[in-house]
Design goal:
With 404 residues, the protein is of the alpha+beta class. It is built from 11 helices and 20 strands. It folds into 3 domains: 5-247, no CATH class; 254-336, Transcriptional regulatory protein pf0864 domain like (Alpha-Beta Plaits, 2-Layer Sandwich), CATH 3.30.70; 340-401, Ubiquitin-like (UB roll). Helix 10 crosses helix 11.
Length: 404
């Protein structure tokens, strides 16, 4: 596939590890590649069995993770050791470590335990290894430059877990989806769990952005099936694989974009964080808020959103829905953007993503992801400022490795 590889994950009907595995196979990833990755880590036999099924009348790929009876429960510390000692491709190992760490930190926060001591019970540990490692291997195989995920349907009602009956979304899923768009599901969705903790951990680690399908030329579509087939609900996850439109960015790195802006003087200021989240989920590249003084001395805010032209309609609708404005201005701008990529550093043995920007091929900026810094600080029970300083120091080492 030529050009930048773009993936769009449609999680509007839910997400789980096996649904993602099925979608990857349906989109053309060889199941043998997934099997080899799982075999490289799993300490006990695990098999992946693929079949074509229907969900609410739609054809889909079901990937069964089949394991034997196991008497071994494993903690995140145990699984981390298995991953580090495995012969996995480095990119797959790094991604799987980040997913499991995110899952362990969320479970630890919910149950009041140390992340490294979070327990994955017997068969559940093997399922989790197969789901996480297989999905990570599939995404690395596709070589995506951009992974956009739709708002995630989590379901409603209650679910029976190891600790008794839990509300949906379960506590771990709610913890994992903090700061990203999610909802109960489309009107008429069944009262059931639609997004599992493993699915939530995978999506929040893999995503480079959230929202509607980006501008892309779709080459393959994979439809992964969940285990249940409730009446009137297609229990599937879709994966679109393609390339970014050539018109998204000119060869010299200049993007033709729009700025949408409006002045608002009658909105409860406590609502602005939710407005920002909703507008980003609708496809905005960036949003910002500026305090202003309007006529008659009224305090107000100017709300601005940076968007690609093809996303302007959906973003404009989100602004109208979420704010009290009755008019939005637009203006064309050029954005000169440096090529970016993602790497990672470790603080206290936990991974923190780092965004790298290059000028003429050399790294000129290395910024740790702040959300990762906060997560690691909580897991290590250390001040955020200290973890951020250590992450910056480690990120500066990436400059040095680059020859600066």
């Amino acid at each position: 596939m030529s050009g930048r590889v773009v993936l769009w994950v449609d999680a509007s009907s839910g997400a789980s590890g096996d649904m993602l595995l099925g979608a990857l196979v349906g989109a053309g990833v060889p199941v043998e590649s997934l099997r080899q990755a799982v075999d490289a880590v799993s300490p006990e036999p695990v098999s992946l069995r693929v079949e074509t099924v229907t969900r609410a009348g739609f054809a889909a790929t079901r990937c069964h993770v089949e394991v034997g009876d196991s008497v071994h429960g494993r903690t995140w510390r145990d699984i981390r050791s298995l991953l580090l000692a495995s012969a996995l491709d480095e990119a797959v190992r790094d991604l799987a470590l980040r997913v499991f760490e995110r899952l362990a930190v969320a479970e630890g926060a919910v149950h009041g335990s140390e992340p490294l001591d979070v327990h994955f019970h017997e068969v559940g540990a093997l399922d989790a290894i197969a789901d996480v490692v297989g999905v990570c291997a599939g995404f690395v195989h596709l070589g995506a430059d951009q992974v956009v995920v739709s708002p995630v349907a989590v379901g409603s009602g209650s679910v029976r877990g190891a600790h008794g009956t839990l509300p949906v979304p379960p506590p771990a899923v709610a913890q994992l989806l903090r700061g990203v768009p999610s909802y109960a599901g489309a009107e008429g969705a069944p009262a059931m769990e639609l997004c599992t903790p493993t699915g939530a951990a995978l999506l929040t680690t893999l995503a480079t952005g959230w929202g509607a399908q980006p501008a892309m030329v779709t080459a393959d579509v994979g439809v992964g099936a969940g285990g249940r087939d409730p009446e009137g609900h297609a229990n599937v996850l879709r994966l679109l694989v393609g390339s970014a439109l050539d018109t998204e960015s000119t060869p010299d790195g200049v993007d033709d974009l729009l700025v949408l802006e409006t002045n608002v003087d009658d909105l409860d200021p406590r609502l602005w964080p939710e407005v920002i989240t909703a507008v980003l989920a609708a496809g905005a590249l960036d949003v910002w808020l500026t305090p202003i003084l309007m006529k008659k001395g009224r305090p107000a805010h100017t709300f601005r959103a940076l968007v690609r032209p093809e996303s302007a309609g959906e973003v404009r609708r989100a602004i109208f829905r979420e704010t009290s404005t009755i008019g939005i201005r637009s203006s064309r701008v050029e954005r000169h953007a440096l090529p970016r990529e993602t790497s990672s550093v470790e603080v206290g043995g936990l991974a923190i993503a780092v965004k790298l920007a290059r000028l003429d091929g050399s790294v000129v900026n290395a910024q740790p992801e702040y959300d990762d810094v906060v997560r690691v600080a909580a897991a290590l029970d250390r001040p955020v400022v200290d973890v951020l300083a250590e992450a910056y120091a480690a990120a500066r080492g990436l400059h040095a490795e680059d020859g600066r």
